[in-house]
Design a protein that fits this description.
Layout (H helix, E strand, L loop, with lengths): L18 H4 L7 H21 L9 E5 L5 H9 L4 E6 L5 H12 L8 E5 L14 E3 L10 H7 L1
Parallel strand pairs: 1-2, 1-4, 2-3
Length: about 150
């Protein structure tokens, strides 16, 4: 897949099963962005862990580099952790996440097991041994000092 391709206005609409081509950009296909994260990425995380017999149900989970929080919402609802905390250096816009959840999935409010926290570039604001599992989805290529964050984890 070439990352330098640009979609032109004259190109046909993106097919529903073509999310891989455009899921990196919310502006290109917001519906596909939602599905790629709320459904597909969530499925991938749950299936990957489940393949090793790992369940997040009733566990404490941290997500490093949670971004817009869509994946964490999917995990909170479907994997049913006791608590999932999404960490990012930018504050997660929970009002926007709630709006999207309502508009795209009929979810009127964020679940009570879902939390977000703003982190520093090289540290995570959490006590040691606070989480049973730590996940991350497409974040480490954006982290300025990945070794420091790995030490934090």
């Amino acid at each position: 897949m070439r990352h330098d391709m640009e979609l032109k206005a004259t190109e046909p609409a993106v097919a529903p099963n073509d999310w891989e081509r455009v899921h990196y950009s919310k502006s290109v296909a917001p519906d596909l962005w939602w599905r790629a994260h709320f459904q597909d990425a969530t499925d991938t995380v749950i299936d990957f862990l489940g393949g090793d017999g790992i369940s997040l149900q009733d566990k404490y989970v941290a997500d490093i580099g949670c971004g817009d929080g869509i994946i964490d919402l999917g995990i909170a609802l479907r994997a049913k952790p006791e608590r999932i905390v999404g960490f990012d250096i930018l504050s997660t816009d929970t009002a926007e996440l709630t709006r999207l959840a309502s508009e795209r999935a009929g979810i009127p409010e964020l679940p009570p097991n879902l939390f977000f926290a703003t982190s520093e570039e090289r540290s995570i604001p959490a006590e040691d041994d606070s989480f049973d599992f730590v996940i991350s989805w497409s974040a480490f290529e954006h982290i300025a000092d990945p070794v420091a964050i790995l030490r934090e984890i």
